[in-house]
Amino acid sequence: MSEQQNRDELINQTHEALDDAPVMNAAEVIAYLQNHPEFFVEHAEALAGLPLPTTRDGNVVSMAHWQNNMLREKAEQHQVRLERLLAQAASNQQNHDKLLHLVSNWLGLVDANDLPAQIERDVQDAFHLDAVQVMVWNEPSRAVYHPSGQSWSDNVVIFANSLRTPYCGPCKGFEIEAALAKKSASGSIASLAIVPLWGTLNRAHVCVGVLLLGAADAKRFTPDMGTHFLQSIAHLAGAALSRVQSPVHLSLKT
């Protein structure tokens, strides 16, 4: 008797034995196989020739072939995930390098009063933004350091102090949006980030200003985006701007 005939006979005997036996459901079959892993070893020859009725391309393949396909699909999924992680790591490294370069520029400035304008230029160029505005103030003295020649209501300072994490999202008619839009080449912005700048003045941890980032793209800044990198920029910029000690003589509006 040929090998194929032996396998067919085994399958027929199995079917006959199962005709009079209680029908097992899928969960029971899976539980049995999990509890008897030696089944696959003891019946390897029979299983290798066992056809499966459903496949992706409609062909009938052996269980071994099907298992190989499943492993290949999982390997491809892992490869895609790995490629995404590597791309994200590369992007993070680029941002880290940019930030390091910015901080080096800021530390190199001799006159601290040049810092606000320098930070605006550096951040806008490094991250390809449509508009960037830095505001620096001394709340106790009610004096504005930067920008000169402009006045702001107390609401700006109060709002910035209330933020513990950056606001990212669409424009909502904030008072500071109008000035930020004027710095854009198009004269308008669709989304923005409002990043409070925290520094140390007289040994106290205070909000020394705010960093405004504007984009014509409505999807550039969204409420669900991560803010860790923005907070890193704010932490370093706030520390640098704490050096600004000569305020422009311009009082806040009440």
TrEMBL record:
<dbReference type="Pfam" id="PF04340">
    <property type="entry name" value="DUF484"/>
</dbReference>
<dbReference type="InterPro" id="IPR029016">
    <property type="entry name" value="GAF-like_dom_sf"/>
</dbReference>
<protein>
    <recommendedName>
        <fullName>DUF484 family protein</fullName>
    </recommendedName>
</protein>
<keyword id="KW-0175">Coiled coil</keyword>
<feature type="coiled-coil region">
    <location>
        <begin position="68"/>
        <end position="95"/>
    </location>
</feature>
<dbReference type="InterPro" id="IPR007435">
    <property type="entry name" value="DUF484"/>
</dbReference>
